[in-house]
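Private note to self, pasted from the team thread so I don't lose it. Backbone tokens:
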């Protein structure tokens, strides 16, 4: 509030001081011009103030009886302030307020045109109508500029909302894949228990997997309930999480899992997330579709390009496509996600088993 009044005071001083020094008789028009400039700098919050400013402009034109001189210059300043005010109101105020303010400012602009043309040596209706038409055209231009800026603001706001919604859905999909991975491991442990093959340490693994799945589901619900203007709180999984992921996979079931990670490999954040997501999806598919696999090898290496290549190879039977059907993104989702990063994903039979390869340039 204090800053607003400082701006108003500066505008009043900048306009009224020269008026009092050079042409005191033009003080009414100077007051009107100062008010218009102040309103253009800091638009008033109430539309009735704009109506009052327009009325002040009309009254000032009626009260001024002296020579034009400085009054003409002040009138131009006033018109400029009213045009800027119109554009700013059209950009951010409700439609009804813009209509009311526009009509009031149109009256002020017409009054300025008339007081300029009617004081000519030989005034004619043609000149007066032309002046009013020019003023109306200028006002229409200001409205057009304001509405165009308004459309850009709305488009930008919609883009932000859509981007954040897409981000939340992406986070929710990733968390859903974590849940599917953990639940699949729990199912395998339960199946082993039915066959009498469950070792005592498996109970601890089931408990930990269940807790991780519950935490992921809670996080998913929180992310989906966020307002549109709040970014989703999440952490990005990357290369540092691969040893734990592969280790937990190898501890569940009969397949031995090995990880080969190039030492000193550094990738951008989004590529690290993609690498982790690829490994997670591929290991989940191994659990669901290759129960006979005895060996799973995860490799993350540099390749010429420069690029990074992620490969997940298993020794299970190569029986048809292993894209996930009951939710998640599956191999089709992996291909789409890698494509946005300029990469490619291939999957198919490899020796006695299956291999998934993702290559990402960086």
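Design output:
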């Amino acid at each position: 509030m204090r800053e607003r009044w400082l701006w108003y005071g500066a505008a009043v001083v900048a306009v009224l001081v020269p008026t009092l020094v050079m042409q005191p008789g033009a003080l009414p028009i100077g007051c009107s011009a100062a008010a218009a400039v102040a309103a253009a700098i800091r638009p008033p919050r109430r539309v009735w103030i704009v109506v009052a400013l327009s009325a002040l402009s009309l009254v000032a034109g009626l009260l001024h009886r002296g020579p034009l001189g400085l009054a003409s210059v002040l009138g131009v300043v006033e018109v400029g302030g009213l045009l800027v005010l119109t554009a700013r109101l059209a950009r951010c105020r409700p439609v009804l307020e813009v209509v009311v303010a526009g009509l009031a400012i149109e009256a002020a602009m017409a009054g300025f045109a008339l007081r300029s043309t009617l004081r000519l040596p030989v005034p004619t209706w043609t000149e007066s109508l032309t002046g009013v038409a020019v003023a109306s055209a200028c006002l229409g231009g200001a409205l057009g500029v304001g509405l165009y800026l308004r459309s850009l603001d709305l488009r930008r706001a919609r883009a932000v909302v859509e981007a954040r919604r897409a981000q939340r859905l992406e986070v929710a999909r990733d968390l859903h894949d974590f849940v599917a991975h953990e639940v699949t491991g729990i199912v395998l442990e339960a199946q082993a228990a039915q066959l009498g093959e469950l070792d005592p340490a498996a109970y601890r693994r089931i408990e930990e997997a269940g807790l991780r799945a519950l935490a992921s589901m809670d996080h998913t619900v929180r992310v989906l309930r966020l307002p549109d203007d709040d970014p989703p709180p999440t952490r990005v999984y990357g290369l540092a999480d691969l040893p734990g992921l592969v280790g937990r996979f190898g501890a569940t079931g009969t397949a031995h899992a090995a990880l080969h990670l190039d030492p000193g490999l550094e990738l951008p954040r989004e590529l690290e997330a993609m690498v982790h997501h690829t490994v997670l999806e591929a290991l989940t598919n191994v659990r669901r579709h290759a129960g006979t696999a005895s060996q799973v090898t995860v490799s993350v290496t540099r390749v010429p390009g420069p690029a990074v290549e992620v490969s997940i190879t298993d020794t299970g039977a190569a029986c048809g496509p292993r894209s996930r059907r009951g939710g998640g993104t599956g191999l089709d989702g992996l291909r789409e996600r890698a494509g946005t990063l300029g990469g490619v994903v291939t999957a198919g039979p490899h020796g006695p088993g299956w291999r998934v390869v993702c290559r990402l340039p960086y």
